[in-house]
UniProtKB/TrEMBL annotation, chains A, B, C, D, E:
UniProt keywords, alphabetically: Cell membrane, Flagellar rotation, Membrane, Transmembrane, Transmembrane helix, Transport
A GO CC term attached to the entry: plasma membrane
TM region positions: 33-57, 153-172, 178-201
Membrane keyword on record: yes
Protein name: Chemotaxis protein PomA
Source organism per UniProt: Anatilimnocola aggregata
Main location class: membrane
Family per record: Belongs to the MotA family.
Length: 258, 258, 258, 258, 258
């Protein structure tokens, strides 16, 4: 579970509530059903025009992944790959078949399976890399949706405010109602700005962060599987994969494999 | 037919209507002929200055393609290419001549035709790739027009509002008419923002999506035709083209060609 | 003559006029000499600070080229190059000397001249490509000037409006003059927005379009001249140059050279 | 200690204070707790959604590094590397072990240690370069945090102003309080603009400047260590490393090594 | 002396003065010491936070270079290089030593000196290119400072206006003073917009123009010196360097060296 995201979202809401109370307003004044219709309806409409339905349907999964990301510990991953290399060197590639089943990263499983099946190295690399490419494309689409929502939120906020102003200026029989009308019109702009600045755009950044991390994980796996298939010495594989780890993890690994 | 685009456009209009009614306004207050003249006339004018007439004339075709896109199922395309490869291997390249006529993707037909005519592989690839390039250029121009319209819509909305404000402030004999004048002036900004945010810019994104998909389709075809011409084994061709498919489609294809 | 640009500029002006009349204003209210001084003077000043005088002096020529562009028909250009190749093959390179004089594209003339003079192929290509580079640099500067004007127009519009507002707010003895002062102040913003959105920025795009087209034309010529100098078979030259043409023109050329 | 940054921050605060006094206002009018809650709380919230907690926790360290940067004098670094090369040539690589301990740049120490341990040149370069890469990634994240804060500050400033306006317009029983309400609402926008323009965005630029400088330092070290390991002549190493120095430092070094 | 820049700056000031007079205002109304403090102080503060003091201290030199640029006539430079090549071919490289002293471009002098000293070609090129790189870095920093000033000017303009508005709204005992307060508040925005649009950003563009030109000059010199060192025939050197000249200068040079 990504605590930082949850903490950030909670903090943003709390901070707005506190700030409303501090300036002497009532939270009720900030609920407006027309504003919610305009901003959320408009954002969904623009999303549907931007992306095919099959992509839009993946949005809940994208948000779930954002709150419950799968983070792989790269230094224990390198250790597992080195252990697989040791088994392969001792007992042959076929011995990996059952070892890779037990709670392994699915990408390690796929690589081992292909290697065990005797896939040629070029084809093995091509298949694994095309998996990474298609994952990168899926991640880009996920981030693309959040970016698009983050861009359209303030625009629909502005549209809602314009709608409210035009309605207010059109039936202006009672001058005393102007201030109230203005307040309601501005709520839509507020919704759009809060959604975009305090959730959607930062969430797209966090998604890109996790995507970069998962790409690194898979790059390590591709290199590891290819080295195992080539029958390289486990120590050499450890040395080669270690350069992908942060300095601290590297030192720890050296103690582990020494 | 692209349901998502249609759904998105409908939803955008509905959401604006609902939001107007919720805030107590009348839809009639949002129709203004001067505003339509300014925004739509201005957008067309800027489009004509940006692009040559021959490109602008293709705009209706671009919009039609957006609503009724030609989507090729890549996994059945790979199956068809593998079948053509089997025929070519069994009966020779010439046997493909009549097979490729029946409801095939026009780009497959072109490739088969060139191969049957005995075009040298380099020339075959050059011709097919230059077709893809000219298609990409056409797609870029189509997206470029929607982008330009999406950029100029809010600008002409602002111009219309400035025009309205200057007229209103110029003949301000009657102070009670100010509010109404403001309302009318703001309608142009609303038109520009809605056109841009809720249709033109997202439509340009969807166009780019379809363009990327069609590029992938044609890349598969080029690789397939070249492999068929080189007389490669159908199974090898299947393996090579499979890496372009999404994981799910790949598994399905494996069952199909097994 | 580029009809689309002329049509676009006319349409933009007409549309603004119609829109003013529709909203009940008088066109006279939109003429203000201080606004013209601020926007046009400011744009010229910024242009002079951005570019050296020799570049700024080319602005009228750039605008003339925009309205009266030299468009080369690429398919007849390919036909002429193929004909030159036939002559060169039949009668030798020297026979091209007088043939290339008659109404040929100046870049074809330059290439033929260099080839007839016995320039070595590498040097011939280097000279022709450096000509293309210096043309590309000139085009970029032309587009750069229009882009700079298009960017500074709204900025000077805003500056003029600020000037007007400060003057108006400074001598506000008569409250009834406020509305008129506001109207005059806003005219500068309107000028800037119209100049930028409805002429300068789209004109920069059109310039880029013509530049891309002329680059393609010259690329075809370089390839053609080099192939002629190398003594390649005219049919092979035709095949090689054809891939630069749009599909329709290619089919037409095939009938022409068959 | 980076005097320029400190001077800049002090100057910005002083200038704002002077400007407030010059325009006849009281500094007290510019303190508002709701505004501070909104802008600072919002910025922290968006930062937490953007980055994982482990990155956000490094923010104080990033700010400390900005005020107290570690600047390496490249010309004395080149001299030290040349001296190490002389020792290695005279007494062998192993003689470097104790020499590199005394107050050396940690990256020089790491390189010497690896060279003394007999690491192969390719592996040595790979390890050093992966250190540089991971440092570059850390620097990019640091700059990324300041950029994100600099982008979100004005956005939360706007959000605070909208909150204030809506509260003010909602309970507008007393028209005389409008001006005061407006003043308070605008303070949030002021906070956001000052934080972004006068500290966060320029600080991100300064961070990028120091990062480029440290990259150059480490590039010199990698080249130097590799040349020392290869046993190159110290004079040749001096010549090769000198090209990374500014002209003035180069001349000075020539006198030093002559 | 760069007349265009001077002319542009004068024109911008004149145009603003004329426009103020045309709209019936007095130039005195546009002087405000608090506004100058805010905008200029703020810009300097942000500059100091962005760049180290040593870079900021070079700002006056950058502005001087902008008004009095060193422009090298590339066609006479090519002629001088060809003459040096003739001397080197006739009397040997050493004969160049005294010839290059007389009023030559300092970069030509550096190159000749290195060649006369017997520096190996690779090292000669590396030293000259690293000089070009460090010049490019200095130019980028100079342009970077003007860009940063041009970006921060309108931001501090806005900050000054917000300060003014808050002060004005805070002590609003006398409603008749509102207009005057607004006028003063807007002056800061005007200062920022004029500084940015009418001087700083265009000056950064001009700087980039001169930088590109000086890079081209030095590229010609590097190629020329290397060819002289390699003992190439002067006519060949002339042919090779000519391609860097504009077409007109090329024709003129041909007459000169014929």
């Amino acid at each position: 579970m990504d605590l930082a995201t949850l903490l950030g979202l909670t903090l943003a809401l709390t901070m707005i509530g506190v700030s409303v109370v501090l300036s002497g307003g009532s939270p009720n004044a900030f609920y407006d059903s027309a504003a919610i219709t305009t901003v959320c309806g408009g954002m969904l409409a623009a999303l549907l025009i931007c992306f095919p339905i099959s992509t839009v349907a993946r949005l809940p999964a994208v948000l779930y992944r954002l709150l419950f990301p799968q983070v792989t510990d790269t230094s224990s991953l390198v250790q597992r790959l080195v252990r697989l290399a040791e088994i392969a060197r001792r007992d042959g590639l076929l011995a990996l078949e059952h070892r890779a089943e037990e709670g392994e990263h699915p990408f390690v499983r796929l690589g081992v399976e292909l290697a065990v099946d005797g896939t040629r190295p070029e084809m093995l690399e091509e298949v694994l890399r095309s998996e990474i490419d298609s994952m990168a494309r899926r991640h880009r689409e996920g981030k693309g949706m959040l970016d698009q929502l983050g861009r359209s939120a303030p625009a629909f906020g502005l549209i809602g405010t314009l709608l409210g102003l035009i309605v207010m200026l059109g039936n202006i029989s009672d001058p005393s109602s102007i201030a109230g009308g203005m307040a309601v019109a501005l709520i839509t702009t507020l919704y759009g700005a809060v959604l975009s600045t305090a959730s959607l755009l930062p969430m797209a950044e966090k998604l890109a962060f996790y995507s970069r991390q998962e790409m690194l994980t898979r790059e390590i796996i591709v290199r590891g599987i290819l080295a195992i298939q080539a029958g390289e010495h486990p120590r050499l594989i450890a040395q080669r994969l270690k350069v992908y780890l942060p300095p601290a993890a590297r030192a720890q690994l050296e103690r582990g494999t020494a």
